[in-house]
Amino acid sequence: MSVEFRTLTILKVYLGEDTYYDDRPLYKAIIEEAHTLHIAGATAYKCVEGYASEVRGHERKLLVNFSDSSNLPIVLEFVDTREKFDPLLKFLEKNVQRGLVTISDATCLMTEYMKKASQSVQQAAIDKK
Question: Which pLDDT belongs to residue 63?
Answer without folding.
Answer: 46
